[in-house]
Design a protein that fits this description.
Elements (H helix, E strand, L loop, with lengths): L1 H14 L7 E5 L1 E8 L2 E2 L24 E3 L5 E7 L8 E12 L4 E8 L2 E9 L5 E7 L11 H5 L2 E7 L7 E12 L3 E2 L12 E3 L3 E6 L7 E7 L5 E9 L6 E9 L6 E8 L7 E9 L8 H24 L2
Parallel strand pairs: 13-19
Antiparallel strand pairs: 1-11, 2-5, 3-4, 4-11, 5-10, 6-9, 6-11, 7-8, 7-10, 12-14, 14-17, 15-16, 15-18, 18-19
Length: 314
Amino acid sequence: MKKLAFALVFIMIFILPKGVGAEELTLRPNADGVSFGWSGGVGCTAGSYYECVNETVQDGDTTYLYTTSAGNRDYYLNIEDSTQTRFISNVTVYQYLRTLGNELATIFIYTGATQYLGTEYSLTTSYVLYSESWPTNPNTLNNWTWSDINSLQVGTRSSNSGGMTENRVTQIWVNVTFGSLYDSRDPAPPNSTGGTWYTNEVLNVSGSGWRSNQVIDMKVNASDGSTICTQLGLTASATGTFSDYDTGCSLSGAATGLATIYVSTDGGATWTFYDQFDLQAPPVPEFSLGMGLALLPIVIYFLLRRSVFKYASP
């Protein structure tokens, strides 16, 4: 039994992954944007050029956008909307690009009616995946909001490096990363309801997808709507994770049933749903056959001792 218990503890500590559950939403182009300085390749239709670069698997030169113009040439694409509400820790734009000569290109985003350029890349004659990340909104200098994401446009600037031939893009998408937080016993993170905790315990949480050393606030409500605890200043690791983090949230005296974890990143002004777990009363220890067998020698000893004293008495 001891060996089995040790094995289970070893699996829980060293084998089961920690910080699982970073959430990432992929958004693809769904409309042409504010202006279009590139052309569509074979099969691409003006007014719906976005359809040539929004595939889930890049198709090379089967469908693509291109430009052969000298100087700086841009195109803009709108991306899909989202109904998400969780804290955004990063926005990354991905593009498969190539050149038929020796040219340059830059990934950009368009937000707040302003264009923001990333790194200028020297393209190769084969399609290569390039990316550019913006952890915060460069227009507001604040954290991204989902309203920002829903109005975001992306594109590519083609630049003449001397002897412009042709630049092409075959696939574009945007990944929005947002933090997860869930009870550490969640069997299917980041937000199932399968974790079980008891009212004589302190809640631990795990999660990932946050910024390095990010500080968040957490609130836990019981099934009856009452607040079990409000814990301020939970700090993510340098890699943006929470790993079996001791929140200090005592579950003592809380109503049993489905409890809910909320997170705030703005000092408690708004609370966002993140996870739920099953809160139960502590289990009553059961008398098992194994326990009975373990106690049997002690019972026999006291019975024999009693008999010896009984018959030994004058």
